[in-house]
Amino acid sequence: MVTDTTNPASLAAAADEVFDRHPDLNGLVAMAGSMQPESPLDPAFLAAPEPDRPAPPRPDDAD
């Protein structure tokens, strides 16, 4: 399903389609956001997963 999130009619049509396909649906979790492109081949891939969170400790980090 393609939805234009800037168009109220498109959102209403998407909601109708979801409820038509899943009439027993009683909850919906919407996930939205923007991500930076990542490559698992880049050594910095796991350095900091998100700009606003610190990187997790690495096994070779001394405490």
Describe the structure.
There is one protein chain. The protein is an all-alpha fold and 63 residues long. It is 22% helix and 0% strand. It has one helix at 8-21. The protein starts with 7 loop residues before the first helix and ends in a 42-residue tail after the last helix. The model has no long low-confidence stretch (mean pLDDT 76).
Please supply descriptive tags for the structure shown above.
single chain, 63 residues, mainly alpha, 22% helix, 0% strand
Reported for the largest beta sheet, the result is: none
Order of helices and strands: H
Helix content: 10-25%
Which radius of gyration do the C-alpha atoms yield?
19 Å
What structural class results from the helix and strand content? Answer: mainly alpha
Strand content: under 5%
Approximate shape = elongated
Rounded average pLDDT: 76
Low-confidence stretches: none
Determine the N-to-C terminus distance.
49 Å
Total strand count, please? 0
* Number of distinct helices: 1
Provide a quick synopsis of the model.
The protein is an all-alpha fold and 63 residues long.
